[in-house]
Amino acid sequence: MLLKIKGITKRFGGLIAVNQVSLQVAEGEIFGLIGPNGAGKTTFFNMLTGIYSPNEGQIGFEDRQIQGLKPYRISKLGISRTFQNIRLLKEETVLENVKVGMFGKTRTGLWSAILGLRSSKKEEKFVTEESQKIIELVGMNGYEMEMAGSLSYGNQRRVEIARALVSRPKLLLLDEPTAGMNADETKEIVQLIRKIRGNGTTVILIEHNVGMVVGLCDRIAVFDHGEKIADDKPEEIISNPAVIEAYIGKEDDKKETEYAAN
After folding, report:
1. pLDDT(60) > 90
2. pLDDT band for position 179 (50/70/90)?
3. Of the candidates 11, 9, 35, which has an alpha carbon nearest to the alpha carbon of residue 20?
4. N or C: at which end does the chain have fewer Cβ atoms within 10 angstroms?
């Protein structure tokens, strides 16, 4: 297994945001994480990426324990993420935004760049070339010199995904990648996620669009009040009584899941 999580818990004072969650994600999977607002999903992501340290439990990534490591160290190990709220540098170009994602992977320092040393120039060329490859992968070629703040919402999402991908992570965490998108934009992001998996990156995504998750993911975990209440294949999840009660709604409201992510 690429990721093995055992009994992680996160408390904020007297509030338990995530409670004794265990799950495993295999290499090459697209793994979905759903649940109501406040269920602990983003807190869970924050523990995987080192923003929060769990109070209890273990997070194993490629057979190494990573709980409590700093975010930059976890990033170097091969875990990258996007955020629910887009965090682009709006006054910088698409290319510059994507290049930021290589921070931590470069070796030359500030003075090398200032002095224009050969090593710095060589590395800058490599970073630019890698960034342009990823921009093309996410379908944003031709937009390299556009200011990020001038882009449509959907294209800003693509740039954010590109920035997370440029470091070539083994595991990509996407926090609500289709939030605010229409059906056509959502299908484009679904196709992009499949392409990312096809290029060898494992994906975990948080989503409120249940039908999109059901059509896209190999397995789905469901959170409710900080606890994992289900972890199964999509067809089992949508018929699970506990999931229906907590998240999807009554049996006759299951039309939400009819969207097919083709």
Report:
1. yes
2. confident
3. 9
4. C
* Torsion angle defined by CA atoms of residues 101, 148, 144 and 49, in that order, rounded to the nearest 10 degrees: 20
Distances in whole angstroms, Cα of residue 60 to Cα of each of 6, 67, 230, 233, 246 = 8, 8, 21, 22, 29
Report residue 81: phi and psi, to 5°: -150, 165
Longest dimension (CA), the chain: 67
Q: In the structure encoding, which two tokens stand for residue 73, read together?
A: 């160290």
Closest CA to 229 of 1, 48, 34: 34
To the nearest 10 degrees (0 to 180), the angle between helices 118-137 and 153-165 is: 130
> Which fold does the domain 3-78+169-258 belong to in CATH?
Rossmann fold (3.40.50)
- Residue spans of the domains in the chain: they are 3-78+169-258, 86-154
Report CA-CA distances (Å) from 153 to 43, 57, 100, 227: 24, 37, 20, 32
- Give the pLDDT confidence of 1-54 residue by residue, as tens digits: 999 999 999 999 999 999 999 999 999 999 999 998 889 999 999 999 999 999
CB 92 within 8 A of CB 148: yes
Q: What confidence tens digit (pLDDT) does each residue in 213-244 have?
A: 999 999 999 999 999 999 999 999 999 998 98
| Cα radius of gyration (the chain) | 19
How far, rounded to the nearest angstrom, does the alpha carbon of residue 99 sit from its chain's CA centroid?
A: 18
Tell me the pTM: 0.87
Give the mean model confidence (pLDDT) for residues 243-255: 59
